[in-house]
Amino acid sequence: PMLLRSLGLEEASTFTSLGRSQSAMLISMFSLFLEGVRSSAIWTAKIKILSSNWRLLSYGSILMTITHLCSAASPWVCEIMARSWVGASFVSRNQKELADAAVVCLVPFCIAQAAL
């Protein structure tokens, strides 16, 4: 689903569509549908494996809270990283500045993911 979502974002960010693309919206909606199906399947498997609904509920609630807090903080963390390391910002129309900001935010996490 994330590859489909990135395809939709790429489609919406082209110069010809100027952020308005019907196909990008359809691709994004389909990827969100697939994400919901995947999430439901994962939670069903966890219930079967743990065979304890209360333990799953408590651990799952904590995990989802931490995940959503990290997702909510991500834009601010990325903006702070971009401004402090290279002086770039995501609030810009300059493509070079946007590319620098994206590289500064993505490369450390990609390296950490590859190392782990």
Can you put this structure into words, describing what you see?
With about 120 residues, this protein is mainly α. Helices cover about 80% and strands about 0% of the residues. It has four helices and no strands. It has helices spanning about 1-10, 20-50, 55-85, 95-115.
Briefly summarize what is shown.
By secondary structure, the protein is mainly alpha-helical. It contains four helices and no strands.
Sheet-strand content, in percent, reads under 5%
* Number of distinct helices: 4
Helix-strand category: mainly alpha
Residues in helix, %? over 70%
Would you list the SSEs in sequence order as H and E? HHHH
**What is the CA-atom radius of gyration, in angstroms?**
18 Å
Tell me the span between the first and last alpha carbons. 23 Å
Indicate the mean pLDDT: 81
- Main sheet makeup: none
Segments where pLDDT lies below 50 for 5+ residues?
A: none
Inertia-based shape: extended
**Number of DSSP E strands:** 0
Which key features would you list for this structure?
mainly alpha, 4 helices, 116 residues, single chain
